[in-house]
Design brief:
Number of helices: 2
Order of helices and strands: EEEEEHH
Number of domains: 2
Helix content: 25-40%
Largest sheet: 3 strands, antiparallel
Oligomer: single chain
Strand order of the largest sheet: 1-2-3
Radius of gyration: 17 Å
C-alpha cells in the first residue's frame, strides 16, 4: 500500500471570491508540482451520513464556454464511472444520452440526428 497526497490551494480576494486555483498530486500529471486551474468540482461521500459533501469553485477568469466544456466532460466521466461501478447498462446509457444532448445544446459537440451512445 502507499499514500498519495492531493492538494488544492485557492487564492481568495477580500470578498472570498476565488482568484486563483492550484492543485497538485504526488502522481502524474502534477508530480508534486502546483498546476493552475480555473475551476474544480469535488464530491466526497460521507459513509456515516450517507450523503455527498461537495465543493464547486471557479475563478473570475472562468468563462461560460469553459464551464460548458467542464460540465460536458464531467457528465461523461460520471456516466462512465457509474457504469464501471454498478454495471447498470440501462442507466449508464440514459446518462450518456443526456450528456450527448447537453453537449449538443451548448455547442461542445456537433448535433446528431441519431443519438446512440450505448455503453455495452
Amino acid at each position: 500500500m502507499r499514500k498519495v497526497k492531493i492538494s488544492i490551494e485557492v487564492l481568495l480576494d477580500d470578498k472570498n471570491i476565488p482568484q486563483e486555483i492550484n492543485w497538485s498530486s504526488d502522481d502524474p500529471p502534477s508530480n508534486g508540482q502546483p498546476a493552475p486551474s480555473k475551476a474544480f468540482f469535488l464530491s466526497i461521500f460521507d459513509k456515516e451520513k450517507l450523503e455527498t459533501l461537495k465543493i464547486d469553485l471557479w475563478t473570475t477568469k472562468f468563462e461560460i464556454g469553459e464551464m460548458n466544456r467542464m460540465m460536458y466532460h464531467t457528465l461523461r466521466g460520471m456516466s462512465d464511472s457509474y457504469h464501471q461501478a454498478t454495471s447498470n447498462v440501462e442507466m449508464s446509457n440514459d446518462m450518456a444520452r443526456f450528456t450527448q444532448y447537453f453537449g449538443e445544446q451548448v455547442g461542445i459537440i456537433k448535433k446528431t440526428t441519431d443519438i446512440d451512445n450505448d455503453i455495452d
